[in-house]
Every structure is written in C-alpha cells, then in structure tokens.
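Blackboard transcription, Thursday session:
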Amino acid sequence: KNEVEQSPQNLTAQEGEFITINCSYSVGISALHWLQQHPGGGIVSLFMLSSGKKKHGRLIATINIQEKHSSLHITASHPRDSAVYICAVVAGGATNKLIFGTGTLLAVQP
Amino acid sequence: NAGVTQTPKFQVLKTGQSMTLQCAQDMNHEYMSWYRQDPGMGLRLIHYSVGAGITDQGEVPNGYNVSRSTTEDFPLRLLSAAPSQTSVYFCASSSLSGRTEAFFGQGTRLTVV
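(Written on the board underneath:)
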C-alpha cells in the first residue's frame, strides 16, 4: 500500500463544475504540498499546508491532521485547469523527504 | 529570475553512455533532491542533499551519482545508462524544514536506447 493515496486517479468534469481531489496518507508528516503538472510540463507548487485551510483564487486546500487527509477543491472549473494534480507529504523526521501520490489526471471539458 | 534551473530538457543516450543532468537554484535552499517520474507511479526520490558536502540515497539510487560542492548546484550523474533509466527527471529545492514552498526544475526527458 502506498504511503500517499490520491483519489480519484482520473476525473473528467464539465466547465463550471466544483471539483474535489482527495489525498490520504499513512505516515507522520510535518507538511503537505499540492502540486500541478500540465501535460509535458513542469511541476508547480499550488499550496503548502501544515494545518487548516488555504485559498488562492479558485483553488482551496484543506488538511485534517488527525484524520491524515487533505482535499484540493477547484471552484468554477475551467479547461485551463486540466492537468495532473499531485499530493506530496513532507515525512516527519530529520530530513524533509517528500513522498508523492501518483497524481490525479483532471480533464475539464468546455 | 529566482527558481530552479535544470538542463537539458531532452536527451537521448545510447546504452552504456554517461551524462550529467545539471540543477542549480538561487534561493539559498539547503534541501535539494532528484526524482524520476514514470507512468503510473508517483515521483520517486533518487538522491537528496541537506547542504553542501552532504548527500544521501533515496528510494531508487542505483545507477546514479550526485555531489553537492556548493549550496547552489546539485548535479545528477548517470554512470552507465541503461534502458531502465528512460524516464522524466526532476530536480527540486526547498528549505530544510520542508514547511515552505517546494520549487521544481522544468524536467529532463531522458531516453536510453
């Protein structure tokens, strides 16, 4: 079993829909990252969370440390949101190794 | 511009050849790392460094070598390329605490034939 699990693996939505991507992890962490990767492109950091909730424009990320769960929400989705969204946790301990989920491929259709 | 500079973007190697992927950051980050990304799998850690002169192995270190002579640079060397090393490689940097944004290079698509 992977230490970081994302769901769903694939998601197709219509433009304007509210989207939720989930991330569950089984290790102790000091922080959690949500990343975005466009096809053939680089990886961009969207959020870094250690507690609570953060919002940037139409993107909202939440984390529940007790339940070892985080969600990424996209409101009023747009085709340009189509990308792979990756959850990565910063494993606790002396070094801040990132452990990655396998990603969620999101396609937003016009 | 601040960030992580990774080169080259594309590379084709013949089996047995060696090469170095370059990674440089100008944010004075202590933590730098190399990952490979393969279809259906999350990014996997190859090697990492917590500061100049300090490196350690990650999850999939075999066939790769790293050094960290300066804070800014963290090159990844493929000693004798194999087809199994065909992948997309990413360099990343962040603060040592891990509690700040992580920055990634543009990626290197490597094909070994």
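Lecturer's comment: The two ends of chain B are 35 Å apart (CA to CA).
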